[in-house]
Structures are given as structure tokens and as C-alpha cells.
Amino acid sequence: MIRAIRSARTQCEERGVIQRECAAIRAQFRQVDNGGARSHNLAKLLYVHMLGYPAHFGQMECVRMIASPRYSEKRVGYLGAMMLLDEKQDASLLITNSIKNDLAHSNQYVQSLALCTLACMGSAEMCRDLAPEIDRLLRASNSYIKKKAALCAVHIVRKVHDLGELFAPAARSLLAEKNHGQLILTFSVCYNVFVPCVSQTVPDLVQIMKGLVISGYSPEHDVAGISDPFLQVRILRLLRILGRHNETASDAMNDLLAQVATNTDSTKTVGNAVLYETVLTVLDIKSESGLRVLAVNILGRFLLNNDRNIRYIAMTSLQRIVGTDHNAVQRHRGTIVDCLKDQDASVKRRALELSLALVSASNIRTMMKELLLFLSSCPPELRAQAASGIFHAAERYAPSQRWHIDTILHVLTTAGGDVRDETVPNLIQLITNTSELHCYTVHKLYRALLTDISQPSLVQVACWCIGEYGDLLLKGECQETEPSQVTEDDALDALETVLQSHMSSPATRGFALTATMKLSTRITENVDRIRSIVSIYGSCMDVELQQRAVEYNALFRKYDHMRAAVLERMPVIEKNSSGHTNGETAGDAVKEIQPAAVKQTGPLLPQQPANQVHPPTVPVYEKDGVSLTLICEKTSDSGMTVTLTASNSTDSDISVFTLQAAVPKSVQLHMKAPSGDFLPARGAAKVTQMVALNNPNKVNLKMRIRISYNTSQGSAYQDTVQIDSFPGL
């Protein structure tokens, strides 16, 4: 059959061969007893399934062959079950009793078949039914069976987390095994069981790890001079889980971690793997300060490694701890800045993030010089991130207002097309509030405008400044810049160049037109020229620009007596949002700016009535330590806002957490961006998701929520919950 399929010259010919073979296999399956051909036919069908053709009609044959007393048929039957069945199909439940019988079989190979199948496709119901049998096999004397049982126990605990406590005693007893393969599987079980059940094993793990570190050469386990690095990595990962939030366990492993960190050879890849796991463990547990400094120094050595992958993971780890161990990371600032010159884009991105995190009031000038140098030559995909980071750093740590303005202008000159939209109003506000630098700023921006009009943000700010402070530009009395005489025609020529340039967007032309109009009250000899420029744009194709021009023309014709008052200088802008906070008043961290802004504007909000009822918080989902609550608030006659809040009460972190919602077709749904996708262990933080609903037809409202996330062990989880009532509406 295989030869016939491979010799087919076309797809159609191949389908014909397979259809004939499948028809013959069906006929053989219908026979009551076809002798030794049963396993032969099922093997054929499995090959057909591997090619991607339908083979579901062989499921019941798999069930029959699993129940056969012959090992040859049982083996193919179990293989077919693993390939053709899954936990969602009812046929999988039919083999539960056969698996239970084979787990008690006297032949270790028959037991192995049953264990492998259960570990591959066992459903939650099967796992609950067969968990006692697996616990019994974990205590067997046969090491071959214990390995298979350990793998099966891992699958069971991942399917039914509550069963972890059942396997905890067996897992603790398996730590006495001398076989390294069995120990590795034992640690896989320990990762998944309930942490308090195995927390008492820390002394045993420390002893095993010490034995590996101080042991002599063992040809069976030695890899590049390191004694069984695979087992060492597993032990360190388990110690990291057990030491997290546990001070007693952390104290018990501090000396061991220091010994591993100082005695492991860092010149080989396997040694770096062990050191990396050691560093992660030190940073994750409640370790001593000296040990944390040692871990940071190891990461500093990784930064000097020629392997880019090692440099990348070093910077990723340093990024995680720069907030808590800032001074220790600061010692490696020079090496981190050097990584900005790396050719690898991923390394360069990590180096940029870490460099921005290392900026402080004491090194702002030095670090900003390096960051501005990087901005001038960085890849286009990193330019926006670099510019935004420089703005934030300058806002928080600017040593003076002039330095702050110069830095932002440098960024706009270098990467004005890649900055965020709020950059222009933020800079305008900064300039407005520093009255002593108005003359200096307008002269500098005027020269920048003459040099380059391709940077839209720079051009917009320059036009605004020329319109506001054109009188200071024309006086030419600024002592902080080189003396230069700017005439009225020069200023108008610069603005007219912007208006006529094909590189100017409608928004930029709007800035230039308004600046031209404002100059009409700041100059004396060229008002007619300004009136002529403005009148031209009264018939502009752009509606916004046309409207401005028509209004300005009306100001000239009908309300000329009011023109000076309407076009006077803008008043000082109040600081009323987190994005408008400069370096002198910013908090200690960027993430603290938003709460500070809320407190500042709090008194301006109307006081709520004392008898106002707050919407109730209703739990809608709780399973495996993950809970979801719901708050409903009515916003209009047909509109409402639903706030979903998720928390994680387990001892392991949850990542890639997402919520998806579905409602009836007549209901309009809009899901806003979640607050994050990471749920730390033990409810340390929560993830909120706001959902806006509009129910114009007033139908019976229902919502189905899909919850999906990845556990710390890497397994994916998905579940669905339906909400039939919405309290508070």
C-alpha cells in the first residue's frame, strides 16, 4: 500500500489508491474475526491518517484491539487510540476500563502502553478515575514503570490540579532515587503538585544539588566538565518555585546558590545554562543582598559574552530587576550602553530599554549624550521607542529648563517624524511656562526651520513659536544665541515656505497659517502681505484650512478692532494631565505619574451624593485558583459598561492571560484594551478588562466569556463561562 501511494503521479491518483484501500479496510473491520490481519489493517489506517486523510472509522477497532489479550494487537490498538482519539470524543471513555486492567497487568510492557496512552490523551474524567492506580505505580520497585508513571502523573496534575496532593507523598519518596533520569521525572511531578505539599523537600534538594556540585568526574553524567547540567537546572527551577514568598526555604538554599554561582565554569555553554538558572533563582526568592549583587555581576559577565543569545537573556533578566536592584545594575551601565552598537536588532532593542531604565538624576547628561547618539543612527523600527524614552527621561530628570528644551529640539530635529502625537502640545506647554527662555527658543526654532522642514513635529512647534513670539525674533536682542537680524520678510518667507511645501500636512499648514495671522499684530509693515496670504487659502481644498482662512479674513474685514485682543499671546497652560508634567515636578517613577495626576484633579470633581449606591461586585468564575468578577454600570438608556477583574490565587504566575466576549447579534460590543496580560501568583496584582455594550433593541442580554492563559509550566489553558444576569441594571 505504501509503495502504491508513493508511486502515484498526481493528487487524484493518490486519492483513488487511498479510497480503495480504505474500502478494503472497512470490509475487513466488519468481519467478526479476521485473524492476525486486524493489527495489519489498523496499521495501514494509521499511515493513511498520517497523510491527512479521514480515518475516524477506525476508532472502534482501536477500542476492540486494546481489549485483546494479544500484545501485538494491544500495542497497535493503543497507538491508534493515541492518534485517532482525544478527550473530546465519547469513544475515549470506552477504553478507561481496559487501561485500568492493563495498569494492573503482570507484564511491564503492557503497563507501559496503558501509561503512555493515558499520559497522551487522558481526559479529566479518566484522570480522576485512574489517579489511584498511577499513585500505586509511582511506588513500584520497577524503575522502568516508575518513569512512565511519573510522566503520566504530570499529565494528570495538569488536567486536574486538585490531584497534586495525591502524588505529593510519592514524589517526596522518589527524591531518594539514585537514577538521574528518574530524578528528572520526579522534579517534573513536583513542579505541578501543590507547592506546600513539597515545600518540606528543600533540604533534600539542597543535598542532591551539593552532591552534583562537589562530585568528581562521572563519565555517565559529565557534559563539558559539568556534572549532569540537566538535573542541576531542574533542581534550581524547583528551588525557585519553593523559595518564592518563603523566607525559611530561601534561607536554607542561600549557601548552596552562592556555592553554585562561584564554582560553576562560565566558559562553556552548559556552565552558563546552570549559572543562568542560578541567577533566576536568586532573583526570585527572598535571598540575601550580597547574593543578589553576585547574581547581577554574573549577568554583567554575560553581557561581555560573544554569544548574542547570552547577551540578550542577560539584559532581559537585568530589565526585570532594575527597579529593585538599581544600584547593582548601574555598575554595568557602560557595558549595557555598548550593546546599543550591537548589530542584532533584538539585542539592540533590549539594550535601549535597559539604558532608558538606568537614567537617573545623577547620570542624565552622560546617558542622554549616548542615547541621542544612538537615536541618530538607530534602525527606523526603534526610532519611535527611543524618542519616547528620551522624552520621558528628560521630563523626569532635566537639570534645567534650557537643557530640557534643547534635548527635545534635538530629538525633533533627528526623528521628528517618529515622535508621538502628544509631543507637540507637551513641548508648546513647556515653552509657554518658561518665559525667560522665549527669546532663546524662538531663535533656535527659527534657525532649525530654515535648515529642515521635513520633520513635521519640529515644523509645527517652530511655526507656533514664531507666531507667538515673533516680536522677540525680530528684535534680535537674545543674549544666549549668536546675534542675528531677522526681518519681517524673513519670518513671513519661512512661514510661506511651509504653507507651500508638498511635505507639509494639512495640520502643519494650519499651524503656519495661524502663525502668519498672529504675526499681523506683532509686525507693522507687512500686514497687507499677511492679508494676501490668508485670503489665498479661503478657497483651499482642505476644509479645515479653508475655515481658518475664512475666519481670519472676517477678522480683518469686520472685526479689525478686535484683532489685537483675539491674537494676543497664549496664557500659561496649567499642568492638568500626566503627559504634561515636566522634570521638576515628576514623581520617582513614570508609573507613578498617573496616580499623582488623579490626586491633583480630584478636588475639581463634583462630590458624589452620600446616598449613592455603588454597583455590586459579582463573582462569575472561579476555577483552579483563577477568579473573575464583574461590575455593571449603566451609562445610558441602552448603554452599559461591564468591568471584568481577574485575579490569580495560585502559587504560580500566569502569563498570556486573555478574555474574549460574545453577545447576541443585536447587541453592540466594544472591548477596550486590558490593563495587562500577566497575573502574578497569590493575587499580587489583577487584570481588568472594560467592555462597552449597547443594547438598542432591549433584548435579553447574555454574555459568554472565554478565558485563556498559560501556566508557569508552559501549558495552555482555556475555559468558557456564560453570564445570564447583570446585577445593578
Automatic annotation (TrEMBL):
Q: Which InterPro entries match?
A: Adaptor_Complx_Large_Subunit (IPR050840), AP1_complex_gsu (IPR017107), ARM-like (IPR011989), ARM-type_fold (IPR016024), Clathrin/coatomer_adapt-like_N (IPR002553), Clathrin_a/b/g-adaptin_app_Ig (IPR008152), Clathrin_app_Ig-like_sf (IPR013041), GAE_dom (IPR008153)
Q: Name one Pfam family in it.
A: Alpha_adaptinC2
RNA-binding among the record's keywords? no
Q: How does it sit in the membrane?
A: Peripheral membrane protein
- Where is this protein chiefly located? membrane
> Any idea where the GAE domain is?
613-727
UniProt keyword Transport, yes or no: yes
Q: Which residues cross the membrane?
A: none
Q: Which SUPFAM superfamilies match?
A: ARM repeat (SSF48371), Clathrin adaptor appendage domain (SSF49348)
Q: Where in the cell is it found?
A: Cytoplasmic vesicle membrane; Endomembrane system; Golgi apparatus
What are the GO BP annotations of this UniProt entry? intracellular protein transport; vesicle-mediated transport
Print the keywords alphabetically.
Cytoplasmic vesicle, Golgi apparatus, Membrane, Protein transport, Transport
Show the PROSITE patterns listed in the entry: GAE (PS50180)
What do the Gene Ontology cellular component annotations say? AP-1 adaptor complex
Question: In which family does this protein belong, per the annotation?
Answer: Belongs to the adaptor complexes large subunit family.
The name this protein carries in UniProt is: AP-1 complex subunit gamma
